[in-house]
Amino acid sequence: MTDKLIIFDTTLRDGEQSPGASMTRDEKLRIARQLERLKVDVIEAGFAASSNGDFEAVQAIANAIKDATICSLSRANDRDISRAAEALKGANSARIHTFIATSPLHMEKKLRMSPEQVLEQAKQSVRFARNLVGDIEFSPEDGYRSEMDFLCRVIEAVIAEGATTINVPDTVGYAIPELYGNFIKTLRERIPNSDKAIWSVHCHNDLGMAVANSLAGVMIGGARQVECTINGLGERAGNCSLEEVVMAIKTRKDYFNLDLNIDTKQIVATSRMVSQTTGFVVQPNKAVVGANAFAHASGIHQDGVLKARDTYEIMRAEDVGWSANKIVLGKLSGRNAFKQRLEDLGVHMESEADINTAFAKFKELADRKSEIFDEDILALVSEESVAHASEQFTFVSLSQHSETGERPHASVVFTVAGKEVKGESDGNGPVDASLKAIESHVKSGAEMVLYSVNAISGSTESQGEVTVRLQNSGRVVNGVGSDPDIVVASAKAYLSALNKLQSKSDRVAAQG
Ligand code: KIV
Ligand code: ZN
Prior knowledge:
Layout: E1 3-4, E2 6-9, H1 25-38, E3 42-46, H2 52-64, E4 69-75, H3 78-87, E5 94-101, H4 104-111, H5 115-130, E6 135-141, H6 148-161, E7 165-170, H7 177-190, E8 198-203, H8 210-219, E9 225-228, H9 242-251, H10 253-256, E10 258-259, H11 267-278, H12 299-307, E11 327-329, H13 335-344, H14 352-368, E12 372-373, H15 374-389, E13 393-401, E14 409-416, E15 419-426, H16 430-442, E16 447-455, E17 464-472, E18 475-483, H17 486-502
Parallel strand pairs: 1-10, 2-3, 2-9, 3-4, 4-5, 5-6, 6-7, 7-8, 8-9
Antiparallel strand pairs: 11-12, 13-14, 14-15, 16-17, 17-18
Helix pairs in contact: 1-2, 1-11, 2-3, 5-6, 7-8, 11-15, 14-15, 16-17
The chain binds 3-methyl-2-oxobutanoic acid and zinc ion.
């Protein structure tokens, strides 16, 4: 007898809360389609009441995705819950996830509410939500640092009001596997109606134990839902990583004895899409999805793997989708082949005109680069959708001169609200000169907090993918740009970050 483990993906909600990881509606929709191909059970699409943009993203995902349950986060108040229900109207299967903090610290310092008030508000919210949607998840925020007796009262009460899933967050990543597992076990044993709900784990990675804690919550505590994100994306050190938890359960089925819906062959494609969209690069030695995860460098290991792969490999690279790095299109590929490849990659363009624009960009790239990989196509459409979302600044052309012993100089032509302008500057290197050339015109005053370059498909012939993280007036944004010329990729990334800084954010913090 095996039990099913529900995979609840919160990349588009908790993952997106990571500073700089915010995504446009179209980017979120593209990732949601990929999550559907990955066959996650629940997609937490956003926090509908936090901003109009998030409302629209949840709504678009609820209308488009048919195979997964679509969930919106909501604080424990009627307005948030009504907004979530409204956004979820088009979903085949909808869930409202409502939360309120229950730890002494959060109740006293953040909410300024007494425990009795929190208890009443939790009950009232679940009652209200239950009248709108049948599937209700309740989270006691900072649950792991809450007092056991009080937490038992709150959870028993919300189950009685109709909560169908109880999620126990380790909001600050403080838990230790054995303790967290036992914490959930005790809750389930002490709460009389605990069998009326599915139990869920939600762990943050501040001490690097989010995956271990989640698995302990499953094995010791009996949880049957894991909340996780692609690449472990999320605030601070991130959330429990979906790919790690899934591959642990699959690889050690002998121990966990749990069934999953996930199509593991989609893992690498999903990881790449999230990384390219958010600009959060995956570290090479990251388990399962890092570039080195299946690379055997030492002679002894290589020899062993060639003789019998299970000498050093516990998973097969192709089972998580690593075979995908092959040439897919080239200069002679036509529009139909391009369109088909977009569909295979889960990219849906709104109109034929959008496909034509993307195809023209593809042809431009194919003229400069003979082999076009899936990653190139995804990078190209990422850029397109960012450009669509906010076209304040767009790249036109760049020229730069650098020679040993001379200070590099660059001039960059770009458009500002449709009007062409040119900035010039010198700098420490060609990239520095190019970004200073843009800044000499824009005068954003933003501080650069991260600059990184990555070869999209591994060789010097590949496109460079640049991430630029800018900070201004308390906002942090990531811009991503790609091009075979890394100086051009850098200028594009800088302009993309400036575009994001320009777009107003009226977002409410989920844990504020
Ligand atoms: O970490 C957390 O507590 C959360 C809740 C909103 C579920 O993300
Ligand atoms: Zn969280």
